[in-house]
């Protein structure tokens, strides 16, 4: 991974290391109402290759008035979004078309593991908490993924979105350190 790029809208939004919706000390984002957001984006050292997986644990506190999400991007263009929108009951995915519910319900103060697999044939598979899906063809073809972004938007006063254990699992190895 490359370095983090951090941004937020106002003083009532930001980030910290401490107790979050994951239930323990992690990286947290918070955003009060009124159009506020806090975001953290991290570049990958190289593009995600077919056959590789990116995984992360996420969690949120009790209130989400706006939305929280993670996005996989290609040169700043959104390729894939996993999000929870306040007022709904399930997390949703958008892979370039319309949002669709995935069957993972709202679960405050719970660590949920997310894994995105970029399959050998260009499709993708995912697991998220109790939800999973295999061999999806994205509505907008995935040609590359080179960064990941987390954001809290209008989540609500005193609420947060936690992120931990960001990793890439590669099937590729480097022989003899070359």
What does this structure look like?
The protein has 178 residues and is mainly beta. It is built from no helices and 14 strands. A 7-stranded antiparallel β-sheet has the order 1-4-13-6-7-8-9, with no helix packed on it. A 7-stranded antiparallel β-sheet has the order 2-3-14-5-10-11-12, with no helix packed on it. Strand 8 and strand 9 form a beta hairpin. The chain is globular and about 50 Å long.
Beta-strand portion reads over 45%
Count of DSSP-assigned helices? 0
Structural class based on helices, strands and sheet pairing:
mainly beta
Largest sheet: 7 strands, antiparallel
Order of helices and strands: EEEEEEEEEEEEEE
Q: What percentage of residues falls in helices of 4 or more residues?
A: under 10%
Distance between termini?
Answer: 19 Å
Give the overall pLDDT as a whole number. Answer: 92
> Main sheet: which strands, in order across?
1-4-13-6-7-8-9
Shape: globular
Low-confidence stretches: none
Radius of gyration: 16 Å
């Amino acid at each position: 991974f490359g370095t983090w790029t951090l941004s937020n809208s106002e003083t009532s939004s930001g980030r910290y290391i401490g107790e979050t919706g994951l239930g323990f000390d992690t990286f947290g984002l918070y955003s009060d109402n009124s159009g506020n957001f806090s975001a953290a984006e991290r570049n990958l050292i190289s593009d995600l290759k077919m056959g590789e997986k990116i995984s992360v644990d996420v969690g949120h506190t009790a209130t989400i008035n706006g939305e929280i999400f993670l996005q996989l991007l290609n040169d700043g263009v959104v390729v894939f979004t996993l999000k929870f929108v306040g007022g709904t009951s399930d997390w949703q995915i958008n892979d370039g078309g319309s949002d669709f519910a995935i069957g993972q319900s709202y679960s405050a103060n719970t660590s949920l593991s997310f894994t995105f697999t970029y399959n050998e044939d260009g499709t993708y598979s995912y697991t998220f908490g109790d939800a999973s899906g295999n061999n999806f063809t994205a509505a907008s073809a995935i040609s590359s993924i080179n960064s990941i972004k987390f954001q809290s938007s209008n989540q609500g006063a005193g609420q947060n979105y936690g992120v931990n254990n960001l990793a890439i699992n590669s099937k590729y190895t480097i022989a003899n350190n070359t």
